[in-house]
């Protein structure tokens, strides 16, 4: 009854604490918490837009879609122009056309007909799409397009091997709205290409080799709404080219060779969407975009920007989306975002800054979604409702170990690792053995594996310590001495275990394959070998925490994640990645190959030696040894192969699921530490016999002590007191003689059969 009452009180306290969490005395949500609609309940930042309803009316999962992010991806991948009417089934033609091309309602599809100029049998009616994809218009002149009716709305000259466009080439197409010249070999756009009174709204010149555009090339495009110049070789932005395009709303300049943006790059325009992605921009002058007051989306991803200076985005009073991901930004000045307070979406992942002042994002009061590399960076912008990512598979903004199963498992794995290896150390210390060297190897292996259990216990304790408030302390934890100690212990355990396992395997291999030729190793040699292995493992584990190599390892080699592990799966090319790859890929792979070969060789040797054996008992023993060796190889593969494969996949650039890192750290990596005591000691026949002898000796000593105590008590009670003088010595002498004779007679059968 009292247990149930206690549980009820704990639950009540928990929910009362949860309901008040994030609320100040005035009933207002504190920083990092957001109030539910029509309710006083406050939900932490990481629980907004996470797919789970936390508010009573579900408002924490409403308005989570980032339309600007959708636009970001949509402008990267676009349909081919003629695919606009792919839903028109059949070839029902609504035009009077009987030529070689395909007529689909109001579309004429002349793709891949090897035309060098437009055919003369095109209908005069209103053609929606005229598609010449895959033909051979090498040199476009006014004559080569003279047979195209002026009523064509969309003209497609994609993959037509166009090398040159002559002046006046499109003067006959004054009513065309869309012109696509993609995927050709154009290098220069001359002037006087388009008629004065043209109605062109979209001009696409992407995937060409354009490196130069005449300053007056676009002067007649007064109605142009969208200009696509992506995937060309433009080295700079000439404001004179863009000056006539006063109605231009969308401009794609991505994937060129632009290195800088100046105040003169963009004249006064009504531009709303500007993409400068995938260039080589290293510098943006102050007020570079000051003439673009109506700009709503600015894409600057995948450039080489090292710093964001104050005033860079001045006068962008309408900006709603800004992408700065995948640059080299190390510094963001404090007031750089003060000019774009209307911003709603900001991408900053893939940069080099690790720490920022929270005041940097304070002016962005309308910011609804922000994207970082790591969830820990969400602490820089706790006033933003939707911060991505929510976690890294190991930790999230609330807990160091996000998954409840992981929180339990880390205690279990730590307990298994520590208990098994402590038993091995104590057992091999007190139990006698005939092979001191082999026992010494296994004691050192147990000590190595014990370090992994200690590491897991420290992680479990720190997870308990930071439960519910991890985001506020994650930076302090990841850069703390304890975290570095955890990284040191895990690395030391892994590397020393690998080396000692290889040494044990070599010792067994020589014993099995050369039982007569091999001399017994001396204790000094064995101790010296182990000392060298431990020294190597300590050096490998300690090097990243030493101050000498900070420029190579950085300050987060062990603190790159909440469990302080140097596996580096999610960021495979972080500082010191070669070192991490050498430890977890090269060393582990070589050790696994050697151990697998050695045990297979031993199994083969044992089977070969037992071919002529007729004894059923010896055959069974041989099979048991082979099975044990097979289990040893299997468990080694179970631990090392997944880690090696995942590390190689990550290094190849393939994204790894976030949750996988946590399972590798908590389950896969400690497998050997938990199973080595069982495989190498606890289940061996010799160890079990030694422990039986030790337990039997302890049991007999206990029974003997009890028997002696009972005899003394009976003697005292019989006489009421101890004898005086020499009589006591006679009595004790009699008891010793009597006890010893009983023992001899009792165990005499064992001595006779022991031989």
Automatic annotation (TrEMBL):
Compartments it resides in: Cell membrane
Any one annotated GO CC term: plasma membrane
Disulfide bonds: 49-64
GO biological process: adenylate cyclase-activating G protein-coupled receptor signaling pathway; hormone-mediated signaling pathway
Domain of life: Eukaryota
InterPro entries named in the record: GPCR_Rhodpsn, GPCR_Rhodpsn_7TM, LDL_receptor-like_sf, LDLR_class-A_CS, LDrepeatLR_classA_rpt, Leu-rich_rpt, Leu-rich_rpt_typical-subtyp, LRR_dom_sf
UniProtKB keywords: Cell membrane, Disulfide bond, G-protein coupled receptor, Glycoprotein, Leucine-rich repeat, Membrane, Receptor, Repeat, Signal, Transducer, Transmembrane, Transmembrane helix
Membrane topology: Multi-pass membrane protein
MF terms (GO), sorted A to Z: G protein-coupled peptide receptor activity
Position of the signal peptide: 1-18
Transmembrane regions listed in the UniProt entry: 410-428, 440-461, 481-504, 525-545, 577-600, 629-654, 660-683
Domain G-protein coupled receptors family 1 profile as annotated: residue spans: 420-680
Gene3D superfamilies named in the record: Low-density Lipoprotein Receptor, Rhodopsin 7-helix transmembrane proteins, Ribonuclease Inhibitor
PANTHER family membership: FI21465P1-RELATED, GLYCOPROTEIN HORMONE RECEPTOR
Stated family: Belongs to the G-protein coupled receptor 1 family.
Protein name: G-protein coupled receptors family 1 profile domain-containing protein
Native source species: Phaedon cochleariae (Mustard beetle)
The organism's taxonomic lineage, starting at the top: Eukaryota, Metazoa, Ecdysozoa, Arthropoda, Hexapoda
């Amino acid at each position: 009854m009292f247990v149930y009452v206690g549980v009820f009180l704990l639950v009540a306290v928990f929910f009362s604490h949860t309901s008040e969490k994030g609320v100040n005395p005035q009933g207002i949500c504190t920083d990092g918490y957001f109030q539910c609609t029509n309710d006083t309940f406050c939900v932490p930042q990481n629980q907004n837009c996470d797919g789970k309803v936390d508010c009573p009316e579900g408002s924490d999962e409403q308005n989570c879609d980032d339309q600007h992010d959708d636009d970001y991806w949509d402008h990267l991948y676009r349909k081919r122009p003629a695919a606009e009417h792919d839903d028109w089934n059949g070839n029902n033609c609504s035009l009077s056309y009987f030529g070689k091309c395909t007529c689909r309602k109001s579309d004429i599809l002349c793709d891949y007909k090897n035309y060098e100029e437009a055919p003369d049998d095109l209908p005069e009616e209103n053609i929606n799409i005229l598609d010449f994809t895959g033909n051979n218009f090498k040199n476009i002149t006014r004559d080569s397009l003279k047979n195209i009716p002026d009523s064509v709305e969309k003209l497609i000259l994609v993959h037509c091997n166009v090398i040159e466009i002559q002046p006046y080439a499109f003067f006959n197409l004054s009513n065309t709205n869309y012109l696509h010249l993609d995927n050709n070999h154009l290098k220069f756009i001359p002037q006087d290409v388009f008629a004065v009174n043209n109605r062109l709204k979209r001009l696409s010149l992407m995937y060409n080799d354009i490196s130069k555009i005449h300053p007056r090339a676009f002067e007649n495009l007064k109605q142009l709404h969208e200009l696509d110049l992506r995937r060309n070789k433009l080295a700079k932005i000439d404001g004179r080219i863009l000056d006539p395009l006063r109605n231009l709303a969308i401009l794609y300049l991505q994937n060129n060779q632009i290195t800088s943006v100046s105040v003169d790059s963009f004249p006064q325009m009504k531009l709303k969407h500007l993409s400068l992605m995938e260039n080589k921009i290293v510098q943006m002058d102050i007020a570079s975009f000051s003439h673009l007051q109506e700009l709503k989306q600015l894409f600057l991803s995948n450039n080489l920007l090292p710093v964001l200076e104050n005033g860079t985005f001045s006068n962008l009073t309408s900006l709603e989306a800004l992408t700065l991901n995948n640059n080299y930004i190390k510094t963001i000045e404090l007031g750089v975002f003060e000019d774009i307070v209307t911003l709603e979406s900001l991408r900053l992942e893939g940069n080099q800054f690790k720490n920022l002042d929270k005041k940097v994002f304070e002016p962005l009061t309308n910011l609804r979604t922000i994207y970082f590399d790591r969830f820990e960076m969400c602490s820089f912008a706790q006033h933003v409702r939707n911060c991505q990512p929510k976690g890294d598979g190991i930790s999230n903004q609330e807990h160091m170990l996000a998954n409840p199963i992981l929180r339990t498992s880390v205690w279990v794995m730590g307990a298994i690792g520590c208990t098994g290896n402590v038993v091995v150390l104590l057992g091999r210390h007190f139990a006698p053995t005939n092979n001191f060297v082999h026992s010494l190897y296994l004691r050192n292996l147990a000590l190595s594996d014990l370090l992994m259990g200690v590491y897991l216990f420290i992680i479990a304790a720190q997870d308990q310590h930071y439960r519910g408030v991890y985001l506020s302390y994650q930076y302090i934890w990841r850069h703390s001495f304890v975290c570095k100690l955890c990284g040191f212990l895990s690395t030391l355990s892994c590397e020393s275990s690998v080396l000692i396992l290889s040494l044990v395997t070599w010792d067994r291999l020589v014993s099995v394959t050369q039982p007569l030729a091999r001399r017994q190793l001396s204790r000094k040699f064995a101790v010296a070998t182990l000392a060298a292995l431990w020294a190597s493992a300590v050096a490998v584990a300690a090097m990243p925490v030493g101050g000498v190599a900070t420029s190579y390892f950085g300050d987060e080699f062990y603190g790159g994640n909440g469990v302080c592990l140097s596996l580096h799966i999610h960021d495979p090319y972080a500082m010191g990645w070669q070192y991490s790859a050498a430890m977890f890929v090269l060393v582990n792979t070589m050790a696994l190959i050697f151990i697998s070969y050695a045990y297979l060789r031993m199994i083969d040797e044992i089977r070969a030696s037992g071919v002529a054996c007729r004894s059923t008992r010896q055959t069974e023993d041989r099979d048991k040894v082979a099975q044990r060796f097979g289990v040893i190889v299997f468990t080694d593969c179970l631990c090392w192969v997944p880690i090696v494969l995942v590390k190689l996949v990550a290094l190849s650039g393939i994204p790894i699921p976030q949750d996988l890192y946590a399972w590798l750290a908590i389950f896969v990596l400690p497998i050997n530490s938990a199973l080595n005591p069982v495989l190498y000691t606890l289940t061996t026949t010799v160890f079990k016999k030694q422990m039986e002898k030790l337990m039997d000796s302890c049991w007999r000593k206990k029974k003997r002590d009890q028997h002696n105590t009972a005899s003394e008590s009976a003697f005292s009670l019989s006489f009421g007191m101890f004898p005086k003088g020499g009589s006591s010595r006679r009595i004790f002498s009699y008891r010793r003689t009597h006890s010893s004779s009983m023992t001899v007679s009792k165990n005499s059968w064992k001595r006779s059969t022991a031989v």
